[in-house]
């Protein structure tokens, strides 16, 4: 794989129904961009908090998300979570948090953000104010590749921060419930003005399952179809890095990364080998 000399920021949000493989995709894309020479910041904004485990970080279950760092939240907003506070800072200092609160792994910075309470605009609480300010900083001011692993929705995005997202990727598997979730996520995204939306099919066993997704989501842009590989599940159970477990998944993830490059010209200007 050839290194890329220059760095250009790109912001990707990944959503989908629980269990469809969005965290896996975030881990693979983060690894691909990092090995291409980019500065990469991978954000875990899913309540399940398992992105670090996908990279194979030890003791990932002990990581405390930023939304639970009460001392930090009080320091930055002037109010402590869970306590009555009629006033707190709605625009707290967050520009140092990507370095201060991230883990480093194979050239990737990993931040565990934690859940936010109210869809679309955060919550009227100090932890919500901190997370909302942090998301705005990550999407609007960071000059690097930022990939956010979100829950089955877009709770961490607002109308203001949506303009910083270069691509919303909805991960789906070949089931009707997953497809329905994909449409709900798209509707929420369109409501806040996020229109650059793509779909990745995952756990595809055969042509029939691929055709099912294409026919049931004909009005979506498909970025790729990731084949089902039992080795992914085996690596997950063993606590091994998912990105090292499947060559065929990595191959399709590289194709998806290459397609994403057209969203912001120059993000990948050489073939990913």
How is this structure best described in words?
The protein has ten helices and eight strands. With 273 residues, the protein is an alpha/beta fold. It has a single domain (10-260), classed as P-loop containing nucleotide triphosphate hydrolases (Rossmann fold). Strands 3-4-2-5-1-6-7-8 form an eight-stranded mixed beta sheet, sandwiched between helices. α1 packs across α10 (247-260) and α3 (70-77) packs across α5. The protein is globular, with a radius of gyration of 18 Å. It starts with 9 loop residues before the first strand and ends in a 13-residue tail after the last helix. 46% of the residues are buried. Residues 1-7 and 118-122 have low confidence and may be disordered.
Give the second-level CATH assignment, the architecture: 3-Layer(aba) Sandwich
User: How far is it from the N-terminal to the C-terminal residue, by CA?
Assistant: 4 Å
| Number of helical segments with 4 or more residues | 10
Q: Could you say how many structural domains there are in total?
A: 1
Q: What number is the mean pLDDT? A: 88
Strand order of the largest sheet: 3-4-2-5-1-6-7-8
Helix coverage percent of residues? 25-40%
Tell me the radius of gyration: 18 Å
Strand residues, percent:
15-25%
Instruction: Write the H/E string, N to C.
Output: EHEHHHEEHEHEHEHEHH
Q: Biggest sheet: strands, sense, closure?
A: 8 strands, mixed
Stretches where pLDDT is under 50 for at least 5 consecutive residues are 1-7, 118-122
CATH class: Alpha Beta
Helix-and-strand structural type = alpha/beta
Shape: globular
Number of strands: 8
User: What is the CATH topology?
Assistant: Rossmann fold
CATH superfamily: P-loop containing nucleotide triphosphate hydrolases
């Amino acid at each position: 794989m050839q290194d890329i000399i220059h760095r250009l920021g790109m912001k990707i949000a990944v959503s989908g129904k629980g269990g469809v493989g969005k965290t896996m995709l975030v881990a693979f894309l983060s690894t691909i961009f990092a090995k291409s020479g980019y500065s990469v910041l991978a954000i875990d904004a899913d309540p399940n908090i398992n992105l670090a485990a996908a990279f194979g970080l030890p003791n990932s279950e002990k990581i405390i998300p930023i939304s639970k760092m009460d001392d930090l939240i009080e320091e930055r907003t002037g109010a402590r979570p869970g306590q009555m506070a009629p006033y707190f800072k709605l625009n707290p200092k967050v520009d140092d948090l990507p370095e201060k609160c991230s883990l480093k792994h194979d050239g990737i910075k990993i931040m565990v953000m934690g859940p936010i309470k109210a869809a679309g605009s955060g919550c009227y609480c100090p932890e919500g104010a901190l997370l909302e300010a942090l998301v705005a900083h990550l999407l609007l001011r960071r000059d690097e590749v930022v990939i956010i692993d979100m829950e089955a929705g877009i709770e961490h995005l607002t109308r203001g921060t949506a303009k910083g997202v270069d691509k919303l990727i909805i991960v789906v598997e070949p089931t009707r419930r997953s497809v329905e979730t994909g449409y709900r996520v798209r509707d929420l995204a369109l409501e806040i003005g996020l229109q650059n939306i793509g779909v990745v099919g995952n756990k595809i066993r055969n042509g029939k399952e691929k055709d099912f997704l294409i026919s049931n989501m004909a009005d979506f842009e498909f970025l790729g179809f990731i084949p089902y590989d039992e080795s992914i599940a085996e690596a997950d159970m063993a606590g091994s890095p998912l990105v090292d477990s499947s060559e065929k998944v990595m191959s399709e993830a590289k194709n998806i990364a290459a397609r994403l490059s057209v969203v912001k010209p120059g993000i990948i200007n050489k073939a990913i080998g």
